[in-house]
Fold:
Amino acid sequence: MAYDERLADRIREVINVRPGVVERKMFGGMGWMINGNMAVGVMRSDQLCVRIDPEETEAFLSEPHTSEFGRPGAKPMTGFLLVEPSELDDATFARWVDRGAERASSLPPK
Structure:
């Protein structure tokens, strides 16, 4: 399943204002890295993957249009969420991208 190029362009508009962002193909999709840590990505055709603090998972899952990240039937990946971007206005979308970028920036460089 290919990733959504329009969604990738939407992410670029928000994240590329930050210094040190590197775009990388990964897992059949596209990821944006800061200091070697993934911040956000498009891993499925129409969903935004956002890096978060694992301790904030429950709080973020209570927000609309979010779900756990992982394969069906497997344990979810901690520290990441999926967000339905088609349901978000531009400001809310940008906040999700910024959350991922802030989390990646807070981690030690790889």
In short: DSSP finds three helices and six strands in the chain. Strands lie at 21-26, 29-34, 37-44, 47-51, 66-68, 80-83. The helical segments are 5-15, 57-61, 90-106. The longest strand covers residues 37-44.
